[in-house]
Structure formats: structure tokens, C-alpha cells
Amino acid sequence: MAVSIFIRPFRRFIGINSNITVLFLDTTPHLNTKSRAHSTSLSENNDLFEPEEKKKTAKKISKAMMAYMQRSKEHDEFMKKEIIEYQIGKRHLANMMGEDPEFFTQEDVNRSIEYLFPSGLFDSKARPMMRHPDEIFSNRKAAEFDETGRPFHSMFYTYKPNYYETLYVSPDNYTKNIVGTIQSLNNIEDSLIKQGTVPMDKMDLISSVWLTKMDIEKLLSETLKAGEYYYLITSLERLCNHPLSKRAQDFIMKYRKKLVSHISEIVIPSLEHDNTGRPYITVKNCMRKSTRGEVTIWGNGSGKITINGQDITYFEDMHYREQLSAK
């Protein structure tokens, strides 16, 4: 009994040969003497010890992967449910509007929502809307490592691989980044200079602005600090200042937003004159919520403001007086 306790610790040393028989005697005084034979082999010893280490390693990886896959599965199930509800709602909306659900586009959805739920709210985000779940809910990163824990991306350990991949050249991405694009433009510039041509093909940025920090974070699916955001914008501005930056317009416009021009929609009234030749302009049907007004601006005037027969004190709030005086 006492000797059998030492069997397990010494099995590795016992099983050196392929097959060794060891005799253990029970030397307990009050019991009869018995002999017990045990045989061990090298393959059996490896099976006893190595699988335990493998199980520990696999257990650690499986816990991490289990949690990751569980979150990914829950998100996928949530998005599937939302997409199904969106498709059902779009079909109901098409039937309400008397349209064919199979050819009911997102523009038709927006027009129908605006017709059925009119709103005077200024901010478009506060108005009723019905959009695809992919446009409403933020994007999530795909799997970043395999089942063994090995990351797919070469910049995984920077904790922000998409951000640094946009800035610098990586083995996964040689050209679609700022540094790689500048290097390619420099090579083209050098070749043009050798041919005796002065390169000048700069991009025009007047009709667009840089995306906000929140928009950049949605695009990269990563959270950025203020300093990281400004460093990215500064690097992009350096690319825009390149003489051949227009050749990288598609890459640059991924991080810019076009401004909507309303110049073509504004109709400037023509200048009129009274009997004395004094110029003036009258703008009719000026809308402010449910109020309609008419404004006349006279040339060579005295600066006096008249509102329904009263002066500027017609507005009791100083905020409105300041706005009117600033016009």
C-alpha cells in the first residue's frame, strides 16, 4: 500500500524501455506478503503526461474563442432579425403606397415616410426614418484571429491595425495607404521631371471637407484619440499638397465629405425702382414655420427698421434684435 504511492512519480523513469516489468512488494507487517506486477511503455507514459498540457493550452484558447464567437454569433443573429423586420416593414409600406414590393427602393421608402409622417423638425436625424440596419447600426470588425489564436493582420498587436494600415505601408497593403501613395506619386513626379515636364495636377478641395472624428471611427471600426485623428488629417493634407494629388483622388475622397451646393436653387430677385428712381428689392412669401412675411429692402436708406409699423422693439427678445441688426 505504501509502496504503491510512489508508482506514479516514478513511472516516467520506469518506462524507459519499450516494455519493462517491475515487481512491487507490499511490506505491510499486518498483511500477507503479495506481489503486484506493473508494465509500462514509453508511448503510454507520453499519453499520461502530454495530453494534460495540451488540454490546458486548448482550454485557454477555447475560452477566448468561445467568448469571441459567442459575441459574434449574438451580433449576427441580431442583425439577421433586424434585416428580416426591415424587409417585412418595407413590403407593408409598399402595399400601403400601392407600389410593387419587389421594386420598392430606398428612395421610395424615404418618400413614403415623408408623405405618411410629415415633420417640421430641422434636424434630419430627429425626423421619422426607415433605413437598412447596416446603415443604422455601427459596423463590427470581422474575426481578427483564427482558432489557434494567431492574428490575421500583420499590425494586430498595434491594437489599431486599420488606423496604422491607413497611415503606413504594411505587408498586407502596399499602395492603399498614405505613405505608399506619396511614394508612388513621388516616383511619377521624378519620371516627369526627367522628361522635362513640370508636374502640376493638384486636387481641388473647395467643395468638400474632412470627415469628423466620429465618421473616421465608423469607417475604420476603431476608436481614436484626438491626437491620432489630427495626425491622420495632417498626413492626408500633406498628400493633398502633392503636385500630383489629383491622381489619388479616389483614395483621398474616402476621408472627405462633399458639400451640398444650394447656389443653383437660390433665385435672386431683380432690382426694382420706384417713381423717384430709388432702388429696392421685395421678397414675398418668406416662411418661418407657420408664419409668412414680406421683406422690402430699400437702397440709399436711413437704416431705420420698421416692422408692422413699429421699430426694432417689436421683438422683445434681444437675441432676435441682434439677428435682425446683423442682416
TrEMBL record:
GO terms for cellular component: ribosome. It comes from the Eukaryota. Residues 34-46 have a biased composition (Polar residues). Keywords: Ribonucleoprotein, Ribosomal protein. Residues 34-54 are annotated as: Disordered. This is 28S ribosomal protein S9, mitochondrial. It comes from Dinoponera quadriceps (South American ant).
